C-alpha cells in the first residue's frame, strides 16, 4: 500500500527532477549533487522536445517519460509517486535547469533529519535577495506581495513560498492528497495549503539563485495568471478553514482516517 502514513524504511534520500527541455543543464546539475548523500535520482520528463531523456539515461538516472506534456504540477505528481514507491524517506526536488544550487542538498535535508522540520524550502529571499542576483524587478515585487498574502492566510512567517527547491519528509507526502492538486504551477501553493492544514512544520534555508538564458522562467502573462491563481487559492483555503466551503483537497489522509 503506497500511503502507509508511517515509515520504518532505512534512510534513503531520493532526488526528484521535474524536467522539460533540460538537456543543456541536466549534466551540470547532476554533477553538482552530493552523490554520497543520495540513494537515487529520479527524473520525470514531461514530453521534452530536446535530448533530455537521452542525457538522463546516459547519466544513469531513473527516468520516467510522460507521453504528453502534463504540466509542472502533473510532473511533480509523478515525481513524488515514484519516489515513495522507491522507498524514499526524504524527497528533495531539484530543478534540472541549474537555477538552484544542487550542492545544498545536505543543508536542505538536515532540519528534517534532526526533526526540526517536516518540510524545508530553499528561499531566494533570505541572505542576498533574488533581486540582487538577477530576478526581474516585477517578479521580485510580485513575490513579496504574494508571500505577504500567503503568510496572512496560512498564519506563517516565511520569506518565500515560490521556490522550486523543496525537501519533504516521506510521511508528509504520504498524508497529503497531492494528486488532487493542480497540474500547473499553482501545484506548489496547493501543497503548501495541504501542509499547513495537516499541521506539518516548514523550515527555510537561504539558497543562492542563478538567472541565465537556459534557466526556466515564466513570462509576464504566465506570472500574472499564476499570481491571480494564488489569490483564488487563498480565498478557497480561508473559506475551507471557516467551514463555509469545505474542500476535500485540503483534508489530509490522517484526518480522513480519524473520521472513519
Q: What's the CATH topology name? A: Spore Coat Polysaccharide Biosynthesis Protein SpsA, Chain A
Q: State which percent range the strand residues make up.
A: 5-15%
Low-confidence stretches at least 5 residues in length (pLDDT < 50)?
1-5
Q: Distance between termini? A: 18 Å
The gyration radius over C-alpha positions equals 18 Å
Number of helices: 9
List keywords for this structure.
Spore Coat Polysaccharide Biosynthesis Protein SpsA, Chain A; alpha/beta; 260 residues
Description:
It is globular and about 50 Å long. The two termini are 18 Å apart. 40% of the residues lie in helices and 13% in strands. The chain has nine helices and seven strands; from the N terminus they run E-H-E-H-E-H-E-H-E-H-E-H-H-E-H-H. The protein is α/β, with parallel strands linked by helices and 260 residues long. A seven-stranded mixed beta sheet has the order 3-2-1-4-6-5-7, sandwiched between helices. It has a single domain, classed as Spore Coat Polysaccharide Biosynthesis Protein SpsA, Chain A, CATH 3.90.550. Strand 1, helix 1 (23-31) and strand 2 form a beta-alpha-beta unit. Helix 1 (23-31) packs parallel to helix 2 and helix 5 packs parallel to helix 8 (220-242).
Question: Layout of helices and strands, plus pairs?
Answer:
Layout: E1 13-19, H1 23-31, E2 40-45, H2 52-58, E3 62-65, H3 72-85, E4 90-93, H4 105-113, E5 119-123, H5 137-154, E6 166-169, H6 170-175, H7 187-197, E7 202-206, H8 220-242, H9 253-259
Parallel strand pairs: 1-2, 1-4, 2-3, 5-7
Antiparallel strand pairs: 4-6, 5-6
Helix pairs in contact: 1-2, 5-8
Amino acid at each position: 500500500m503506497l500511503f502507509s502514513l508511517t515509515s520504518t524504511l532505512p534512510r534513503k534520500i531520493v532526488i526528484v527532477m521535474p524536467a522539460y527541455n533540460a538537456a543543456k543543464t541536466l549534466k551540470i546539475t547532476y554533477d553538482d549533487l552530493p552523490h554520497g548523500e543520495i540513494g537515487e535520482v529520479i527524473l520525470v520528463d514531461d514530453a521534452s522536445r530536446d535530448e533530455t531523456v537521452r542525457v538522463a539515461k546516459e547519466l544513469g538516472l531513473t527516468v520516467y517519460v510522460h507521453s504528453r506534456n502534463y504540466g509542472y504540477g502533473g510532473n511533480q505528481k509523478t515525481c513524488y509517486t515514484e519516489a515513495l514507491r522507491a522507498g524514499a524517506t526524504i524527497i528533495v526536488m531539484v530543478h534540472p535547469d541549474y537555477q538552484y544550487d544542487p550542492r545544498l542538498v545536505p543543508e536542505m535535508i538536515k532540519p528534517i533529519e534532526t526533526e526540526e522540520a517536516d518540510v524545508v524550502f530553499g528561499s531566494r529571499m533570505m541572505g542576498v535577495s533574488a533581486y540582487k542576483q538577477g530576478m526581474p524587478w516585477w517578479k521580485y515585487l510580485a513575490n513579496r506581495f504574494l508571500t505577504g498574502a500567503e503568510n496572512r492566510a496560512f498564519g506563517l512567517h516565511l520569506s518565500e513560498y515560490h521556490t522550486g527547491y523543496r525537501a519533504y519528509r516521506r510521511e508528509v507526502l504520504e498524508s497529503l492528497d497531492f494528486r488532487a492538486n493542480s497540474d500547473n504551477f499553482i501545484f506548489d501553493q496547493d501543497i503548501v495549503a495541504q501542509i499547513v492544514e495537516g499541521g506539518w512544520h516548514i523550515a527555510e534555508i537561504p539558497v543562492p539563485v542563478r538567472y541565465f538564458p537556459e534557466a526556466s522562467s515564466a513570462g509576464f502573462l504566465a506570472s500574472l495568471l499564476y499570481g491571480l491563481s494564488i489569490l483564488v487559492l487563498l480565498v478557497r483555503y480561508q473559506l475551507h478553514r471557516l467551514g463555509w466551503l469545505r474542500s476535500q483537497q485540503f483534508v489530509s489522509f490522517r484526518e480522513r482516517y480519524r473520521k472513519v
